[in-house]
Amino acid sequence: MPVSCVIPARMGSSRFPGKPLAEINGEEMILHTMRRALLADCFDSIYCATDSERIASLVRSHGYEAVMTGVHLTGSDRVMEAAEKLNLDLVVNLQGDEPLVDLELLRSVSETIQTEPSSWVTASSILDPNDAYNRNVVKVRVEENYACDFLREIPLDKITLWNCHRGIYAYGKEARKEFSRLPPSNPEKEHSIEPLRILGLRPIRVIFSDKESVSVDVPADLLKVEQIIQSNKTLDGVLIDV
Fold it and tell me: Which domain CATH number covers 175?
């Protein structure tokens, strides 16, 4: 069954306004992320979903496709509008602030949503103990490969029970429509974590990656990404500095 990748991008991030257009080694972050999706070679189509003409124009000028959406509370809501407009079935939602996303993880998420199309699928990696109280890093608790809770702060003595949540989701039409119909739950609004809207209503399968998460949450994270690229390290056998 075809799987599409939709990358939500908005200018109005509260913690980092204009984040998709922040430059990493002279190139806008959204382009780095879209290139990683392309390099994964597991998607039938790739789109940027945005409410910004600036982002859409940039993406299109580099040969990628963009779809305009309205203003939304979450990235999943934005992806769901785009998927409905494009009449997509299975969709992987890759957050635009994952410019070094693990290619094998993308492939695993894509494969899993094909085998579990009625579930949500998301991803996790090892949680750095230094991030236990870092609210920019979402934590997920996993039991038998399925999520049972999400938080932003956890007690340090409980850290072995939690993983670092990654900015990737996948879902089919049925799950997307269900999410769109539901109002934001109180836990979702309190913690600003979108899967809390459907936790307990639909299974959330979690794919684990042993590679470090290098997402860009705040401006200071740009330097870390630039240093990785400039060091000429590789991910998945692919030179990052492409």
Answer: 3.90.550.10
